[in-house]
Amino acid sequence: MRTKIVAGNWKMNKTLQETVTLINDLKNTVKPDNNVEIIVAPPYVNLVEAVNLLKDLPIKVSAQNMHFADNGAYTGEISAVMLKAIGVRTVILGHSERRAYFNETDEVLQKKAHKAYEKSMTNIFCVGEKLEEREAEKHFDVVKSQLSNTLFQLPMEAYKKIVIAYEPVWAIGTGHTATPEQAQEMHKFIRDTLAKKYGRDLADTVRILYGGSVKPGNAAEIFLKPDVDGGLIGGASLNAEDFNAIVEAAKS
Ligand code: 13P
């Protein structure tokens, strides 16, 4: 039995003051229970405040990225050591926006995934194809190669703290969500690919989240699919009521 996860990726949204407001709204709205793990990922500068505000609640705080080195001459970057020092033990890696706008390659992401493992951080690792890759029916090949070049370089033990997020690029921020069937098909493919590499027992324990235009109105039907273990939510995570509705959808 895999506990579902609903994670909010705030991306580059919310000032410090707005972060305080949204977290207070979440505290008044969201009812955490054992059926769903809840995670929020504010921008770096608001992480300390988020950790502080959520310290008594079972809502985890995640970073949206991190560097693969512990420290050094990497202007503008943040390390796992720094995140852990403020109580952040979860990180989103390989988001398609990082890949597309900041040139993050599988080679760099492999190093980041390795660092997350080394530092015992939960790694929400994103994979997903672009529209032209789906249209050319290359989506399975693309996702398989993203996994082979990165997570599949890690030992079995690392998967205790790995969550995979399938985010088809064409569904992110577009309002064109994948159908529940398209999500299930890819999630099953990812699980079968994991099983071939590491064995069925391990594959059955790994949570695979869907991300891409998940909203209160479509979350439940997507989460009902057997290989969908929750969602990575962008736009709808910026509003407490919408985020709560998605959390509730994951509970049922
Ligand atoms: P949207 O929910 O805004 O489509 O974003 C999805 C996403 O990229 C989450 O990481």
The CATH superfamily is identified as Aldolase class I
CATH level-3 fold name: TIM Barrel
- Shape category: globular
Q: How many helices does DSSP assign?
A: 11
Helix content: 40-55%
Any idea what the CATH architecture is? Alpha-Beta Barrel
**Spatial separation of the terminal alpha carbons:** 14 Å
Total beta strand runs? 8
How are the strands of the biggest sheet laid out side by side? Answer: 1-2-3-4-5-6-7-8
The amount of beta strand, in percent, is 15-25%
H-E order: EHEHEHEHHEHHEHHEHEH
Give the averaged pLDDT, no decimals.
97
Number of domains: 1
Bound molecules: 1,3-dihydroxyacetonephosphate
What does this protein structure show overall?
With 252 residues, the chain is α/β, with parallel strands linked by helices. It has one domain: Alpha-Beta Barrel (TIM Barrel), CATH 3.20.20. It has 11 helices and 8 strands. The chain has an 8-stranded parallel β-barrel, surrounded by 5 helices. Strand 1, helix 1 and strand 2 form a beta-alpha-beta unit. Helix 1 packs across helix 11. The protein is globular, with a radius of gyration of 17 Å. 1,3-dihydroxyacetonephosphate (13P) binds next to strand 8.
What is the secondary structure topology, with strand pairs?
Layout: E1 4-9, H1 16-29, E2 36-41, H2 47-53, E3 59-63, H3 80-85, E4 90-93, H4 96-101, H5 106-118, E5 122-127, H6 131-135, H7 139-149, E6 162-166, H8 180-198, H9 200-203, E7 208-211, H10 219-223, E8 230-233, H11 240-251
Parallel strand pairs: 1-2, 1-8, 2-3, 3-4, 4-5, 5-6, 6-7, 7-8
Helix pairs in contact: 1-11
The protein binds 1,3-dihydroxyacetonephosphate (13P).
The site of 1,3-dihydroxyacetonephosphate has 14 residues, from strand 8.
